[in-house]
User: Fold this.
Amino acid sequence: MKDFILYLFLALFGISLQATLFQGIRPDFMLILVCCYTLRHGQNKGMAYGTLTGFLIDSVNGFILGPNIFSKFITGFLAGLIREKVFYWNIFLNTIVIIVLSLLDIFIVRICFEIFSGFPINNTPLEALIFQIFYTSAFSLIMYPFFNRGDEGRKFYTGAVR
Amino acid sequence: MYFKKRPFIIAVCILLFFALLTYQSLKGESLFSNLAVYPLSLIMQADSAAFKGVKNILGIGQGGEERRLLDKARRLASEASRYAAIESENSRLRALLGLKSQRTDTITAAEVFARDPTNWFQILWINKGLSDGISKDMAAVTDAGVVGRVHRVLGGKASIILLTDVNSAASVRIQPFGIDGILEGRGSRNCFLKYIPQDVEIEIGLPVLTSGLDEIYPEGLLVGYITNITKKSGEFFWDVEVKPAQDLNAVEEVVILRR
Assistant:
């Protein structure tokens, strides 16, 4: 519970950083946090945390509630699957996972907005989305040590077979 | 009876998300969207102030003569950049004040403290809201030109959709010919002007002003300048690109105008 509250504050701080520090293209700190939290605490808690962070993003956007909730929920689900199926975690896998999940996140958000809001969101420049993925994976490398903290995470990091 | 709990919960969650999205899609408005905004906007305001403060922090250390002189040089350079920042802010505020006194339809001037945290939308958050007389769809401008329109209004905060956002559209007129068109944002740095017939001669560099027909932006405000004109075969209209007169990535203060 303590960790959840800490991560909730991290999410609030992360969104705030994205909104105030960056001009132009922004990395997706929420995706990194959801991955991080899921790898430490498992799929169920990861999906719950993903839903919460998605709710925060959708609330700040102020258009429709749901696209980011759904995408971050799926991020939690997939990161949980990876946690169960993959026994070793290294910097290469870390980067690949973040890139794939970022792509999927963008795809889900885009599809949801297209279908349920009718916004011409497909006009968002492709280079902005590519740079978003690039920045997110770069920041995930900075966050890499935090992906493997805690008891469960330490087992995961050393490659212990469960 | 064997019952898999987790897939069931996941399926229910996904169904709930789709129900939520479908409901909003049919009703045409968002649900509970202001719940999380209050604490977030407080953090964003604090962060924004902190980042502005960090820019002016001096690095002072102790040591030998060389270190002391270096520190002094650094301190002087920092002070000079602080004065430059103050001077720039001063001239911006002076221009805004000029704009405020020129126009009779101004509501208030406001400071930008945050932007949309995602790359999908182009939104600014300002530190004035309902309590300052701001309401939805009012125009936000600077002395350089139109910035956008008010999207959401909370007690002491409001968000502004920029001209370049995908949800933005404005009724505009190309000067000096008086040709009306619709300016829309597409998420990039420039806007696009629609419905300009190809039998009309237009050229790069012409100013684009608001026409006032949309009843959001008052008539005669400078929006931007034509930067590109392309002709697509088989189409009746020019494909016109307009660069906003105000650099929308560098907006720090805005003036809100009455509708």
Remarks:
- Chain B touches chain A through 46 residues (CB under 8 Å).
- The first helix of chain B runs from residue 5 to 27.
- The CA atoms of residues 65 and 71 of chain B lie 10 Å apart.
